[in-house]
Amino acid sequence: MLIIGITGTLGAGKGTVVEYLIRQKGFHHYSVRAYLLEIIRQRKMPENRDSMFSLANELRAEHGPSYVTDQLYLLAERNGQPCVIESIRTTGEVTSLKEKGNFYLFAVDAIPEIRYQRVQLRKSETDYVSFETFLEEEQREMKTTDPNKQNLAGCKQLADFILSNNRTKEDLYRQVEEALAQINLQG
Question: Helices 131-142 and 112-122: crossing angle, nearest 10°?
């Protein structure tokens, strides 16, 4: 079972890569965001980035740094099909998934101004923030020495492929195809 993990900065295009893998390659999708939102709704917490951040950190502190993605991996394993796990945010998640085998991490990035425009356009419940708040929230998730907390910079360093999404969707898709070709050569 091939697993592709997706990490990246806010609004970088993680969802665009996921949609491409689903539509063009038949991958099954498992989302950290959706998993956390389900728990947030059960607990009647506000549906915002702060709730997602604190819940994810709580679950990791209680059950281990890779808890959330391990739960998604169990669902994927039952399915047995190629899958994509979206929104990997800790180095512990990367390490755990790599230990399971046949796992590749894609890191998606773009310049902050482009990413902010994208999050404003998607109008998700966690994206109604100013540019300054957007940058502050991202910095909070960028780097830490605590293995239970978000570390996007650390995840990017562990990525097998880094995709730059400053241009067109077609350019991003081309990078995905190049990464998939390399995975097939390795496998």
Answer: 110
Q: Give the domain range for residue 108.
A: 3-181
For the chain, where are the alpha helices, taking DSSP H only?
A: 14-25, 32-42, 49-63, 67-79, 91-100, 112-122, 131-142, 152-158, 169-186
- Contact between 7 and 152 under an 8 Å Cβ cutoff? The reply is yes
Question: Which whole number is the average pLDDT over 45-60?
Answer: 91
Q: Provide the whole-model pTM.
A: 0.91
Q: Measure the CA–CA gap between 64 and 10, rounded to whole angstroms.
A: 24
Q: What CATH number does the domain containing 157 carry? A: 3.40.50.300
The CA distance from 137 to 92, in Å, is: 21
Q: What does the pLDDT read at residue 63?
A: 96
Cα separation, 39 vs 7, in Å, equals 21
| pLDDT computed for residue 150 by the predictor | 87
Instruction: From residue 165, give the alpha-carbon distance in Å to each of 36, 74, 143.
Output: 26, 30, 21
Q: What is the per-residue burial (b if ≥16 Cβ within 10 Å, else e) of 117-135? A: ebbeeeeeebbebeeeebe
Q: Please indicate, yes or no, if residue 187 is contained in any of the structural domains.
A: no
Nearest to 17 by CA among 169, 185, 184: 169
